[in-house]
Design brief:
two-stranded antiparallel ribbon, 344 residues, mainly alpha, single chain, globular, 4 strands
Length: 344
């Protein structure tokens, strides 16, 4: 009953927001279909996972206390991907196909890793392969960096190295956020919604539509995850795919328009979009850098999971309150995005 009420209330909110923002009605229907399918199949998936023992068991490096299904991403990623391909059916090209292939590669790798953790020696080469496919077919090299750090056009071998490093950092930084209930999902809904409006204004329909599809899936997933005791987790099958899409979306926006004019008071500044994305992705950037630094300084592998993330520290400060810890980070992100929206 609560599930039905949630869906009905969200339909009303969605259509109201759609009318205000002039959103394409067909896109709204796609959004609702993705949500309905994700809600229904996730509920069934949780029952199936518990029955057959497909759960994430508690351990020293994990903070949940009870065996919990980790099927969130396993459900909403294929639903959102299929909906995106249907939406793009009249204009499927090498960009759409290459991103779809890379998403499927990351998705399958994530499912395997969720069931039996894989070594980074296996995961990293396959993640790089997925990134290289997107970078190549989306023609991200050469890329106009807009003068960030004094860099204008990035090309040749150094461009490839820099771009692959950026994709890998983004994928893993987003994945790191899947540590407490509601954090990654809430953050992604805010950031992807912002990027949806931005990419739409630039005419990038592929990015606009994939962001909308994934946002719909994540919102439905949050019904089961944004709780004191989550009914399911997203898992690597979801988080790594969202990281790949985040990297693709940000690079595509930089590719179309490398800089923006930002008004502060009565003065206009030309800012490279790279720096704007540093601000937008403030949390995964800061958290990843401090985690990697601590691990290396302690003589540990940067790829070995631990509980040194900022959201784990917040959990200690909030008496292990998942929702409050997540809301601190989500609230700051919402304020950052609101300020960006007013000035870009």
């Amino acid at each position: 009953m609560r599930l039905i009420v949630f869906f009905i209330v969200f339909i009303l909110i969605l259509f109201l927001a759609g009318n205000i923002l002039n959103v394409d009605s067909i896109l709204l229907y796609h959004f609702l279909v993705i949500m309905a399918a994700t809600l229904g199949l996730t509920k069934l998936g949780i029952i199936y996972a518990k029955k057959f023992g497909i759960v994430d068991t508690p351990s020293v490096r994990k903070i949940h206390k009870h065996p919990t299904p980790s099927i969130g991403g396993m459900v909403f990623i294929p639903i959102a991907l299929i909906s995106w391909l249907i939406k793009m059916s009249d204009s499927i090209d090498e960009k759409t196909l290459s991103l779809s292939f890379s998403i499927l590669l990351m998705y399958i790798l994530g499912i395997i890793d969720d069931r039996k953790p894989l070594s980074h020696k296996i995961k990293l080469p396959l993640q790089i392969l997925a990134s290289v496919i997107v970078i190549h077919f989306w023609n991200f090299i050469p890329l106009d960096f807009g003068g960030a750090f004094g860099i204008n056009t990035v090309g040749n071998i150094w461009g490839w190295i820099l771009m692959i490093a950026f994709f890998q950092f983004t994928i893993n930084a987003i994945n790191f956020m899947d540590g407490i209930n509601g954090l990654l999902g809430g953050y992604i809904v805010l950031v992807f919604s912002f990027l949806y409006l931005w990419s739409g204004s630039l005419g990038s329909l592929e990015i606009k539509n994939i962001l909308a599809s994934m946002t719909a899936g994540v919102i439905a997933f949050l019904y089961f995850n944004f709780r004191r005791t989550a009914k399911t987790f997203m898992g690597d099958a979801g988080s790594t795919v969202l990281g790949l899409i985040a990297a693709t979306a940000t690079t595509r926006i930089i590719q179309i328009v490398p800089t923006s004019s930002i008004s502060i008071g009565n003065i206009d500044y030309i800012i490279p979009h790279f720096f704007i994305f540093v601000i937008i992705f403030w949390y995964p950037l800061f958290d990843s850098l401090q985690v990697y630094t601590r691990r290396i300084l302690r003589g540990n592998s940067p790829f070995i999971a631990d509980r040194l993330h900022v959201h784990h520290w917040l959990m200690l400060k909030t008496n292990k309150n998942h929702l409050l810890s997540s809301l601190y980070i989500i609230g700051i992100t919402a304020a950052v995005l609101f300020g960006m929206a007013l000035n870009i």
